[in-house]
């Protein structure tokens, strides 16, 4: 009898152990699955972006919840809507109510949930009317849950683009104070190029990944322009991007990436890491280098400039899992209205800008601004 009871107890215990084992295995599988969903493989930074997988979105589980900075931005404001907001900003700079173009776009972004296919001119007109009537944007947008997010996110993209600056003008190179776009297209004026919206397209050299930039096809030697004033943070060879330059904005929120530059003579003379550049400067030349571990190799079939914009809200996002690269196709379309005019430097392989500019955003202590003569001021804001 006792033997049977002992045998029965053993069977029960055995069954419990089996159930416990199954539950343990199940929990392990679920845990690994959850970890896989929240982990992104870190890969070598390249001219086509940086890594497999997408950056961590705001609000996801993990350390990101402990940090109070934006983890994800999708910028898809159409060029024509950007231009509408920009014209309103520039046109009211001397009026009692100066409209802020980034605030206008942030309002629309919050209203549409970032989906600008829903854009209606009447929505823009309505908020402009309220602002001109004396209402502050904070009051107008107080019930918009995500307005603050869109203002910070869109500001990280656009805040450095519009403002006062000084520039040479006319045949006599007279210095004028202006208000308007103080950023430029990445391709110099009068140099043809073609492009299309290729952000997110597949790339396979080295490893399979998404294309996290914008390709602009053109002729080898086409002058490449600094879009915004900043300092050279990276310069040299990368097996994916070939000869490339990385320029950081002075507020450190934007990192501009220019890759596949010309073989043998990729950069403007004397350019090095740490150099200060002014928006509109020639920084390099379009080419087809890259896709090789051997420096100075042309392995890109079609000559083009790979242009990318990375947003940085916290320095931990500069390299790693949380990098934010935005689709800059519409931005490039928008910037086409302001291309830097260049001229060939005789006896060299270089081009230089025709009209110099003084950007008040450049630190006064930098060599770039020390010895420039003082400009004359125009009577009002103008654009070229």
Structure notes:
- Strands 3, 6, 8, 9, 10, 11, 13 and 14 form an eight-stranded antiparallel sheet that branches. The chain has a three-stranded antiparallel sheet with strand order 2-1-17, with no helix packed on it.
- It has two domains: 79-159, no CATH class; 173-363, Glucose Permease (Domain IIA).
- A hairpin with a 4-residue loop joins strand 1 and strand 2 (174-181).
- It has 384 residues and is α+β, with helices and mostly antiparallel strands.
- It has eight helices and 17 strands.
- It has helices at residues 2-37, 79-91, 101-112, 121-132, 137-140, 147-158, 329-335, 367-370; strands spanning 162-169, 174-181, 193-195, 202-203, 209-210, 214-218, 223-225, 230-238, 242-249, 254-259, 276-277, 282-285, 304-311, 324-326, 342-344, 351-353, 357-358.
- It is globular and about 60 Å long.
- Mean pLDDT is 83; it is low at 1-7, 22-65 and 368-384.
Question: Which tags fit this structure?
Answer:
384 residues, alpha+beta, Glucose Permease (Domain IIA), 2 domains, 8-stranded antiparallel β-sheet, 3-stranded antiparallel β-sheet, 26% helix, 21% strand, globular, disordered C terminus
Would you kindly provide a brief summary of this structure?
This protein has 384 residues and is an alpha+beta fold. It has two domains: 79-159, no CATH class; 173-363, Glucose Permease (Domain IIA) (Distorted Sandwich), CATH 2.70.70.10.
> Helical content, roughly?
25-40%
Backbone CA Rg: 26 Å
CATH T-level fold name of the largest domain: Glucose Permease (Domain IIA)
The CATH class designation of the largest domain is Mainly Beta
How far apart the termini lie comes to 104 Å
- What's the tally of helices? 8
The total count of strands amounts to 17
Rounded mean pLDDT is: 83
| CATH-level-2 architecture of the largest domain | Distorted Sandwich
* Low-confidence sequence ranges: 1-7, 22-65, 368-384
Q: What is the overall shape? A: globular
In CATH terms, the superfamily of the largest domain is: Glucose Permease (Domain IIA)
Query: Given the helix and strand composition, which structural class is it?
Result: alpha+beta
Q: Mind describing the biggest β-sheet?
A: 8 strands, antiparallel
What is the string of helix and strand elements? HHHHHHEEEEEEEEEEEEEEHEEEH
What's the number of structural domains? Answer: 2
Query: How large a portion of the residues is in β-strands, by DSSP E?
Result: 15-25%
Multimeric state: single chain
């Amino acid at each position: 009898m006792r033997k049977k009871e002992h045998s029965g107890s053993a069977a029960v215990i055995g069954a419990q152990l089996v159930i416990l084992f199954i539950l343990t295995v199940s929990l392990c599988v679920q845990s690994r699955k959850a970890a896989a969903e929240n982990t992104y493989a870190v890969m070598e930074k390249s001219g086509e972006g940086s890594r497999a997988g997408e950056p961590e979105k705001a609000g996801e589980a993990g350390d990101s919840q402990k940090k109070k900075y934006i983890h994800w931005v999708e910028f898809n404001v159409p060029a024509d809507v950007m231009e509408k907001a920009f014209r309103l900003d520039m046109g009211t700079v001397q009026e009692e109510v100066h409209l802020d173009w980034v605030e206008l776009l942030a309002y629309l972004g919050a209203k549409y949930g970032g989906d600008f296919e829903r854009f209606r001119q009447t929505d823009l007109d309505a908020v402009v009317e309220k602002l001109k009537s004396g209402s502050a944007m904070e009051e107008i947008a107080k019930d918009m849950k995500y307005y603050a997010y869109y203002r910070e996110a869109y500001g990280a993209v656009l805040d450095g683009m519009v403002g006062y600056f000084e520039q040479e003008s006319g045949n006599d190179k007279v210095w004028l104070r202006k208000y308007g776009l103080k950023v430029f297209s990445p391709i110099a004026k009068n140099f043809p190029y073609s492009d299309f919206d290729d952000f997110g397209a597949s790339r396979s050299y080295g490893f399979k990944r998404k294309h996290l930039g914008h390709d602009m096809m053109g002729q080898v030697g086409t002058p490449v322009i600094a879009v915004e004033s900043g300092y050279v943070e990276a310069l040299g060879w990368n097996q994916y991007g070939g000869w490339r330059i990385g320029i950081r904005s002075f507020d450190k929120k934007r990192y501009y990436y220019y890759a596949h530059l010309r073989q043998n003579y990729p950069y403007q003379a004397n350019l090095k890491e740490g150099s200060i550049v002014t928006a509109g400067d020639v920084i390099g030349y379009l080419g087809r280098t890259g896709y090789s571990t051997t420096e100075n190799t042309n392995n890109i079939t079609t000559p083009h400039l790979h242009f990318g914009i990375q947003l940085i809200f916290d320095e931990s996002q500069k390299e790693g899992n949380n990098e934010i690269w935005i689709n800059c196709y519409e931005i490039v379309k928008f910037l086409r209205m302001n291309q830097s005019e260049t001229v060939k430097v005789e006896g060299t392989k270089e081009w230089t800008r025709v009209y110099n500019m003084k950007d008040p955003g450049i630190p006064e202590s930098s060599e770039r601004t020390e010895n420039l003569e003082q400009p004359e001021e125009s009577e009002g804001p103008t654009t070229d």
